[in-house]
Design the sequence.
């Protein structure tokens, strides 16, 4: 059987090798690329990302990747997974180091954690449990282990509650994962979440209807 | 609930993993790649790899070698030792390191920390502080693998590191290192209550209760240790079980 090809967008925002390694561990072929041509050849697209919102958008723009990605995801129905910053960039706008326009694929904004009186540390860093709030193929058969690795100071606030498929609690409930048709995204890092994370990646490549 | 993290520290010197006592008397404890593989299967929450001689030997991080370690890890890895400029950080993040730990360079040029945080995001930048107790019960920061006194107060420096954009502080007691008599709770508590970023306590763990004390009395988000995993029968799983029994939320299912 041919191995599934996962194309991982390298837009200078770190961590691409970790993501590739995790997909390889579950039997996929990976292509790390920043070329718009390669975006079209994939069967699965992954936008990872570590770093700041503004820098992420700047690199996507400079590399000419925004339109090819949009075309694949919206016109051709390509399964797409955004991870951490790669999820946040889907929003309309972000407020990390000032205002930045996002991809606008998801109605929502990205804001910094803000706590009233609780002495909670920022970034939200470490392993935390998620609560599944509606069925999604991404979390198929994960009942036994839903603890994932998070590291972020900002989070997505979605205007459309129907997109939120999982929440996490840190000071208050925030969106931990979203799905809108063929667009999936997680605030946590599945590639760093050992078995629980590999299961989610496995669901992404094997369990969603194309 | 956010879990308290258990983090083994791998100290690297002359091609081997070592364990020190008060930053001296190094003992060889094995091969880092094998060790990373073992830890990955034991469900620890993160790993820290520190190349402790890199700065003194004026070396860059050993990228090819670190890459081999990263291939064994499906959990976060922090890499430190010899990081002097933004290119060093870029190189490490590119091969898959999740966080970098800056020590000497943060003291010599605090603006380096802010530049790094601005470019790579605070979440990737750990400032590690090696501190020694002074007679007046304050703590002084040491650099160059614990060899060079700086005259800086550890708590003041931790606050400065946070202001500069460090996303996490790794606080290590030189006095307690390798002694296995418990963490220096005074040092750890002073630092963790002074900053609003997560703090990892390090230095001195010898029994499961020490880890509980580090979190409950020291106020840390994570506990790091090395000797206990090499020189006692305690495994990470046993320590986490004890932490859980004492009411702490830790990741048991992995």
Sequence:
């Amino acid at each position: 059987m041919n191995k599934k090809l996962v194309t991982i967008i390298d837009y200078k925002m770190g961590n691409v090798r970790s993501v590739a390694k995790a997909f390889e561990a579950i039997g996929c072929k990976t292509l790390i690329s920043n070329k718009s041509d390669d975006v079209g050849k994939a069967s699965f697209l992954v936008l990872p990302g570590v770093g700041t919102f503004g820098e992420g958008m700047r690199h996507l723009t400079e590399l000419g990747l925004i339109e090819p990605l949009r075309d694949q995801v919206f016109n051709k129905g390509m399964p797409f997974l955004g991870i951490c910053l790669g999820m946040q960039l889907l929003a309309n706008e972000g407020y990390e180091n000032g205002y930045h326009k996002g991809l606008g694929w998801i109605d929502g904004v990205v804001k910094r954690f803000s706590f009233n009186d609780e002495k909670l540390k920022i970034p939200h860093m470490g392993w935390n449990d998620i609560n599944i709030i509606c069925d999604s193929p991404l979390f198929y058969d994960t009942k036994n282990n839903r603890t994932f690795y998070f590291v972020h100071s900002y989070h997505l606030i979605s205007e459309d509650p129907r997109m939120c498929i999982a929440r996490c609690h840190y000071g208050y409930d925030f969106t931990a994962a979203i799905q809108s048709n063929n667009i999936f995204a997680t605030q946590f890092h599945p590639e760093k979440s050992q078995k629980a994370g590999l299961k989610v990646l496995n669901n992404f490549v094997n369990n969603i209807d194309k | 609930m956010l879990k308290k993290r258990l983090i083994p520290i791998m100290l690297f010197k002359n091609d081997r993993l070592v364990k020190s006592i008060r930053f001296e008397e190094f003992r060889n404890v094995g091969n880092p790649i094998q060790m990373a593989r073992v830890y990955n299967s034991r469900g620890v929450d993160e790993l820290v790899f520190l190349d402790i001689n890199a700065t003194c030997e004026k070396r860059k991080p050993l990228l090819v070698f670190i890459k081999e370690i990263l291939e064994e890890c499906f959990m976060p890895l922090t890499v430190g030792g010899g990081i002097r400029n933004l290119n060093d950080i870029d190189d490490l993040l590119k091969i898959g390191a999740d966080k970098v730990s800056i020590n000497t360079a943060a003291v010599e040029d605090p603006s380096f920390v802010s530049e790094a945080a601005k470019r790579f995001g605070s979440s990737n930048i750990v400032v590690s502080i090696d501190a020694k107790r002074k007679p007046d019960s304050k703590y002084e920061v040491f650099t160059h693998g614990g060899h060079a006194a700086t005259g800086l107060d550890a708590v003041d420096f931790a606050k400065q590191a946070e202001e500069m954009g460090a996303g996490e502080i790794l606080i290590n007691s030189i006095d307690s290192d390798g002694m296995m008599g418990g963490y220096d709770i005074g040092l750890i508590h002073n630092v963790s209550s002074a900053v609003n970023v997560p703090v990892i306590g390090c230095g001195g763990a010898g029994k499961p209760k020490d880890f509980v004390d580090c979190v409950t009395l020291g106020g840390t988000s994570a506990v790091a240790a090395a000797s206990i995993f090499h020189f006692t029968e305690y495994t990470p799983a046993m320590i986490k079980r004890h932490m859980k029994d004492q009411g702490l939320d830790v990741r048991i299912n992995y």
